[in-house]
UniProtKB/TrEMBL annotation:
SUPFAM superfamilies: alpha/beta-Hydrolases
A biological process term (GO) from this entry: glycerolipid catabolic process
UniProt source species: Streptomyces globisporus
Protein name in UniProt: Alpha/beta hydrolase
Residue stretches making up the AB hydrolase-1 domain: 29-147
Length: 303
């Protein structure tokens, strides 16, 4: 697996770190959107390879307040899930997060792309498809809340016991502590139906260890960014919703609600899957995204 050198896209004053997989570079554009305040390096390499093998040109980026992208000032403090319940944030809006993805598409020279978003990245991807439908070929939302459910309404989909576990992970001040925090997050999110791959998890964590994994201020700014755009029922992009039946953070009701809100969306509930995408499922997930793209192409008359 070979990635291009890191480059930066710009959305106003915000710089967005991104790179692109050199394998499969001539395939159909696929932009990966990662979750809450973690970097692009948290995408499993084997999953990216599976996407390339399925005919996609794969790119990934760090959202603002994550990885090597711009960190925003803000007075948000404390538990990010309290910020989610409050449903408001002063640093930036959810529209800004959606526009960041389009800025990355522009920097890549892609007029449109398939989107795959995981966790908070799934919410962002939904909002990109609502705000910029002409830039999105298909949408895959993985382990995510419905994008138009916020505040206290989102809490009914969350497992409160897992929130307590996250709250006990303290921000670390040194490399060893950051690795330990990242590994703790990976273990909490892991799929109970599959072996936990500590080696693979450490590869992801150490690729991004200096930017930190447990930054509650950045998490709160991201998750508290308010959405003022259309409801999910207005989304008309071909959509796939993936959700683990054993997700320790988000109940399957989140996936069901997301799929129910989007016209003609395909819902795939995955037994034994948690809040991650284990190695054993990479080929199947890539095949689902490939099938979605092929169905969309047939409808549009491109195939």
């Amino acid at each position: 697996m070979t990635w291009t050198e890191r480059r930066f896209a710009r959305n106003g004053a915000v710089e967005l770190a991104h790179d692109r997989l050199q394998e499969g570079a001539h395939g159909e554009p696929l932009l990966l959107v990662m979750g809450l305040a973690v970097s692009r390096h948290w995408w499993p390499e084997q999953l990216c390879a599976a996407f390339a093998d399925a005919g996609f040109a794969v790119a990934r980026y760090d959202q603002r307040d994550a990885g090597e992208s711009t960190r925003l000032p803000g007075n948000t403090r404390g538990n990010p899930f309290a910020a989610l319940a409050a449903g408001r944030g002063a640093a930036y809006t959810a529209e800004d997060l959606a526009d960041d993805a389009v800025a990355v598409l522009d920097a890549l020279g892609w007029e449109s792309a398939h989107l795959f978003g995981h966790s908070l990245g799934g919410v962002v991807a939904q909002r990109v498809a609502l705000r910029h439908p002409d830039r999105v070929r298909t949408l895959t939302s993985s382990a995510a809340l419905p994008s138009d459910v916020g505040g206290l309404g989102a809490l009914r989909h969350l497992r409160l016991g897992t929130l307590a576990k996250f709250a006990r992970i303290k921000p670390a001040q040194d490399r060893e502590g950051r690795i330990a925090a990242g590994l703790a997050v990976a273990r909490i999110c892991a799929s109970p139906g599959y072996p936990f791959d500590e080696t693979e998890a450490l590869e992801r964590i150490t690729a991004d260890v200096d930017t930190g994994i447990a930054d509650p201020d950045a998490q709160s700014r991201q998750i508290g960014a308010a959405w003022h755009g259309p409801s999910l029922a207005e989304l008309r992009v071909p959509a796939l919703v993936l959700h683990g039946t054993d997700d320790p953070l988000l109940k399957p009701s989140a996936g069901r609600a997301t799929a129910a809100a989007i016209r003609d969306a395909r819902l795939v509930l995955q037994p034994g899957i948690g809040h991650d995408i284990p190695r054993e499922r990479h080929t199947e997930v890539a095949a689902e995204v490939r099938a979605l793209a092929d169905r969309a192409a047939r409808v549009d008359g491109r195939a």
